[in-house]
Target: DNA-3-methyladenine glycosylase II
Amino acid sequence: MTATVSCEVGLPADFRTDDVLAFHRRDPLAVAERVEGQTLQKGVVWEGRPACLTIRFDSAQASAELAIDGAPGAAAPAALAQLLPRMLGLTQQVEVFERTYRDHPQLGPLIARHPGLRVPLSASPFEALSWAITGQQISVRAAISLRRRLIEVAGLRHSVGLACYPDAERVAGLNEADLRSAGFSQAKAQTLIRLGRLVAEDELPLNTWIATLPVDEIRERLMRVRGIGPWTIDYALLRGFGWLDGSLHGDVVVRRSLQAVLDCPDSVTEGQAKRWLAEFSPWRALIAAHLWAVGLGKLP
Model:
């Protein structure tokens, strides 16, 4: 039995639909996300069951339908209504950032180049954090391939045929050999399984933190997990929670793009990038997103 819940949300005039679709179109094999025209379909785990999230865009609104293999819980409609604007970056007050810095000598041209830029979010903080771990110290292309193999080894599929990105419980149930066979290093395999268990046991209450966003507590608790460092945490805070003030000064593309923006003859060091970004708190991660857009033409 498949049950559905739905909702819709209005879109601002400057909404960048293509950014959202590009983020979910990263995997060319489309095992868990499928983009056709202005429609996104994404395989997710909802309350432990396979589900397909479909988001349709037009110029004025986004409409979401969640098809769950099984009966949805009573909270599903409200949860979907909260998820949709968060995934689309609509909770990010980018208009305040743009109004504040549109005349800044370096940020002004970035804003003019990418007006209305918001950061699309993963469907859950666990997806964002596990993706950040997967992508540590490898290229985006290699990370996408590794992510695909994680989805495949987890083995959860919705009735429409899309594979579902695994939740913490599913990852916690994998063993190291499963992930090693999928191409993960021993260190990453151990970190992912450890993370899955901590989240499944509510030692890391990621979904609770969505509402309260205790950034210092999140950072302190995640730093205790072996294999998770500052860059991974700041990226996960951005992609999983929509927190726009992580200092992603260690990111290679951020520093390379900053070198071009500042017209520096030499490479920008992590320390230099950190000091430059510090001036723009609480918008440092949003500025990193603008620098990604310059360096990659898209958001990783």
Observations:
- The mean pLDDT is 95.
- The domain at 125-228 is CATH 1.10.340.30 (Endonuclease III; domain 1).
- The two ends are 36 Å apart (CA to CA).
- The CA atoms of residues 3 and 70 lie 6 Å apart.
